[in-house]
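Why does residue order matter? Because the sequence determines the fold. Keep that principle in mind as you read this record.
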Amino acid sequence: MKKVLILGGGIGGAASAIAFRKKGFEVELVSERDYLFIYPLAIWIPVGKAQFKDVSIPLSKVAEKHGFALTIDKVIALDGMHKTITFERGGVRNSPALVVVALGASKVKHEGIEHTSSICGKPEESLVLKEKIEELVKRGSGKIAFGFGGNPKDTSGVRGGPAFELFFNLHHHLKKLGIRDNYEMTFFAPMAEPGARMGKKALAAMAAMFKAKNLTTRYGKKIKRFEADGIVFEDEGKLQSDLCMFIPAGEGHELIRKSNLPQNEAGFIRIDNFCRIEGLSGWYAVGDAAALEGPEWKAKQGHIAELMANNSASNAAIEHLGGQGIMKGYQDHLNVLCVMDMGDGAGFVYKNSLREVFIPMPLVGHWLKKSWGHYYKLSKLWL
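Structure:
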């Protein structure tokens, strides 16, 4: 039985471990965390609709269910030329027959970023945001600024959806408490039309919702720096804030950027359509670690990471286990798919190269996303 080493215990890494086991490989998953954090559900932690344990799964349970080995360790170096991997505790290892790099991405650095919190940063930051929101509620009034950044070197790493979702959920939370009118809520982004990759229908619907909910915007100005009391833009204009939630765009993982793996300008790993790392036989990259090729609106999302994981396993079985079938590429299946939760409803967003869809789902949409969360956990532990 050929062995595959999966590096990273996020959505892409866990999906890879499961998919490769189903194809008959011996699998070892290495993760620096002992749990799988379900980022799409983390938007409910800061507003008290979910607890940390509700959006995380012990990786030991996933490993037991699907029959792969789990090692808790941190990858500190990758050498594609010599095909070695260095771990914090486990030292240097020669790579097995197959390796899947699913280490995620780093974040673009901004001056003063320590004055912000992110719903897409380290999992613990969701709890920090919860504390900050609770403090602001106790104060009874304040200025709230939520936003996300861009990366002109690779726009696929932009994460805007969770920022919009948490922003709408916070609005709903304050409204339920009867204190929404005491807060100024502003959404900011450096691009002129944040969320444009979702399509014109979704953009128009969001603009209408912003107006109806008395939410203001600050778009089209590059961010110069963050300060303790606000955001300073390139024209020296300042958006005052008592609470700033900001999601920086992704860039290549720091570990990968320091390695000799093939990379694009932003530091993401270059792969072919079958998720094989360029020039490294038996090495694959999936999810946020990989450089996506495709239409301008392409985006890194969890379901794309899972697609890449499943394709990698199928392709590896054909190439390395003598399996039958046609090699599967990811590029023809790129799409934007999101149930954008708003606390009291949601909007269904879908876009591919042929069409774009936006369907408002008052009330039922919120429970649809909740149901997806239950399904996702069941799919890892029982199905």
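The mean pLDDT is 96.
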